[in-house]
Amino acid sequence: MTDTIPTFPKIEARVAADATGSLAINGLEQPLAGTDEQAVRSEILELVTATATEMGRPVRMTTRDSLGEQVLAVFPDGHVEALTEPVPDRRAHEATQQQRAPHGRDAQEVSAPRAALPTLNDFLQSRPAAPVGPATMGWRAAARRLSGGLVPVPPNTFELRHRNAVDRVQQSLRGPRTVVVINPKGGAHKTTATLLLAATFGTLRGGYTLAWDNNETRGTLGWRSQPARHTNTAVDLLRDLDRFNDLRNARVGDLDNYVRAQGSTQFDVLASDEDAAASSTINDQAFNELHTTLSRFYRVIVVDTGNNMRASNWEAAITAADQLVIVSTIREDTAASAAWLVDGLREKGHEEKVRNAVTVLASPSKVADPQLSKRLHGHFTSLTRTVLDVPFDRALVDGGTLKYEALTPATREAWLQVTAAVADGL
């Protein structure tokens, strides 16, 4: 078995007792963290299985944990075989033996383990919180500027909430993450939500964000985004996907011929098929192949979905989702569609993902129906992690190309809070 599995790619995994670890593939290391050691091992296995699937064959993985060093074979279907027996780490083994060894006159008496000595990390964690900087927004910032900075005017509650949301959006992630925006009814604000989530992530995280139209035929994300010099779509990328699966030669810059850069908002758009005469569709296998490849190039992928809950690519997106975003306008028809969607997801075994979902309620006019809004908040608060409102904005009414800078400050702030809630679930 050992001789039949190539050593390329070189894969090394490490799991520590504090539920952290790392995975390095050909020298590219990715830090990991989980609730416990088993969670870290599961994430490593998922990532290495994806690599085996890409290669179309089993791959070798060298692991290092509390048991020592071992070489494993990971197969595309996820099962694992040991190629070597664990070799205990000498220093860890000696430390363990030293803790267990009896000493003193009574050989039956075992000494209590010594308390762990503080480390650099403990010292850094003991630092006091950084002081809150002066106000940078509103009249408070103006008063500070007028004083030449001599009067340290503190930020108000709104600015503190804004800063907190920015910090949450910018937090480090445990590898690439996928956000899936859903409602099986057209006109429910899905595409708008996808673009604004991606724009907020891209602006505040500095890129490596993708908005992807995962419609089995044609969606409107490409039409609502800034145009590119090409008209390539997910279908074209799927056809040429092999060139990006060559780990030694694939380059992120080559994706520019398939995705559409969105300027200062620093995210890309992958459009769905826009050829009215085409007969090709994206199914679950195509979605999974695209998702596996795109996850190597983007930190955050925001997926816009179609209206057919029974489509295989729709179901594949739900399975891949790290965070669901349920979107509805404050209207009876779109709200009923969202409620029906939640029922269906729970029946299909996605109850945990529904419980962690973020619900976004978009006002269809300047003044939303207060009674319906109250009903929706009550219904979805009991089903999902949080429910947030976003206001009506005239810049979004015409359904044309979305221009982030044309949105009102209130709209941008509302979507910042939504994006922060989404980031909390990643």
Brief characterization of the structure:
With 426 residues, the chain is α/β, with parallel strands linked by helices.
SS elements, strand count: 14
Strand order of the largest sheet: 9-10-8-11-7-12-13-14
Residues in helices, as a percent range: 25-40%
Task: Describe the largest sheet.
Answer: 8 strands, mixed
Tell me the radius of gyration: 25 Å
CATH architecture of the largest domain: 3-Layer(aba) Sandwich
Low-confidence stretches: 92-112
Overall, the morphology is globular
Mean pLDDT: 84
- Write the CATH fold name of the largest domain: Rossmann fold
Which CATH class of the largest domain applies here? Alpha Beta
Termini separation comes to 38 Å
Strand content bin: 15-25%
Total domain modules: 2
Structure report:
The chain has two domains: 2-91; 166-424, P-loop containing nucleotide triphosphate hydrolases (Rossmann fold), CATH 3.40.50. The radius of gyration is 25 Å and the shape is globular. Helix content is 36%, strand content 17%. The chain has 14 helices and 14 strands. Helix 5 crosses helix 14 (409-424), helix 6 packs across helix 14 and helix 9 packs parallel to helix 10 (312-320). The strands form two sheets. The chain has an eight-stranded mixed beta sheet, sandwiched between helices. Strands 3-2-1-4-5-6 form a six-stranded mixed beta sheet, with helices on one face.
SSE blueprint and pairings:
Layout: E1 11-15, E2 20-25, E3 28-33, H1 37-55, E4 59-65, E5 68-74, E6 80-82, H2 90-100, H3 120-125, H4 138-146, H5 157-169, E7 177-182, H6 190-205, E8 209-214, H7 221-224, H8 234-239, E9 260-261, E10 268-270, H9 284-294, E11 300-305, H10 312-320, E12 323-329, H11 332-347, H12 351-355, E13 358-362, H13 370-381, E14 386-390, H14 409-424
Parallel strand pairs: 1-4, 7-11, 7-12, 8-10, 8-11, 12-13, 13-14
Antiparallel strand pairs: 1-2, 2-3, 4-5, 5-6, 9-10
